[in-house]
Amino acid sequence: MTQGSAETQGEALTARQQAVLDAVLSLMVEKGSGLTMTAVARRASCSKETLYKWFGDRDGLLTATVQWQASKVRAGNFDRQNLDAGALRESLKGFAANWLDVITSPTSIALNRIGISQAASRDGNLGSIVLANGRFAIGERLKPVLDAGREAGLLAFDDTETAFRTFFGLAGRDVQIRLLLGDTLTLSRAEIATDAERATEQFLTLYGAGRHASGRDKTNA
């Protein structure tokens, strides 16, 4: 899946289609796996024919749902040609805060739990759908910011994927795995903002061009 399609997926949907996908997410939170087109049609007050017309089939509906959820994680707007340290910092903080807000939501927890269950049992395709349209698509959304930071002389790294995974880990820490395993951890907006700022500062300490150590490990992931 390309960065462009991931970034614009939510914007391309009509309000009615977004409401249908929100209905899918609410059913996942309430019922878990076993989602059917009939249940979605009933919850969204639309016909199954409309669902098939819009999304093709059940996997198409699930893919659109994951893309809709992932579209809420954005790196923000930035001028690649005139990127400065302040704009880079704000883009990273915004991305981290968006991502933490999404992964701590009941809908994201339910979606990921079902995906993990299906991946383990090989019963359904949601696991691969979440991986392709969630983690990997989100990665492709932030990497241009990191590359722009390097081009502007603000960041120093050898491999974009490695730099992204480092930032991803600093932002998420153990939050997602704890939630998926049943921890009742809750983060307020203020705590999310603080965590996002901390992750950004830690990342800039590691990869900021002014602090870059010549002997840093160059091993790619």
Question: Which descriptors would you attach to this protein?
Answer:
Tetracycline Repressor, domain 2, mainly alpha, elongated, 70% helix, Arc Repressor Mutant, subunit A, 2 domains, 221 residues
Describe this structure in words.
This protein is mainly alpha-helical and 221 residues long. The protein folds into 2 domains: 3-68, Arc Repressor Mutant, subunit A; 74-211, Tetracycline Repressor, domain 2, CATH 1.10.357. It is built from 11 helices and no strands. The longest helix is centred in the middle third of the chain and has 26 residues, at 126-151. It is elongated, with a radius of gyration of 19 Å. The two termini are 21 Å apart. The relative contact order is 0.12. Residues 1-9 and 213-221 have low confidence and may be disordered.
Number of domains: 2
C-alpha Rg (nearest Å): 19 Å
Label the CATH architecture of the largest domain. Orthogonal Bundle
Distance between the termini: 21 Å
Mean pLDDT, to the nearest integer, reads: 87
**What is the total tally of β strands?**
0
Structural class: mainly alpha
Low-confidence stretches: 1-9, 213-221
Number of helices: 11
Would you kindly provide a brief summary of this structure?
This protein is mostly helical and 221 residues long.
Which secondary structure elements does this structure contain, and how are they paired or packed?
Layout: H1 3-12, H2 15-31, H3 37-44, H4 48-55, H5 58-70, H6 85-103, H7 106-121, H8 126-151, H9 160-172, H10 175-180, H11 189-207
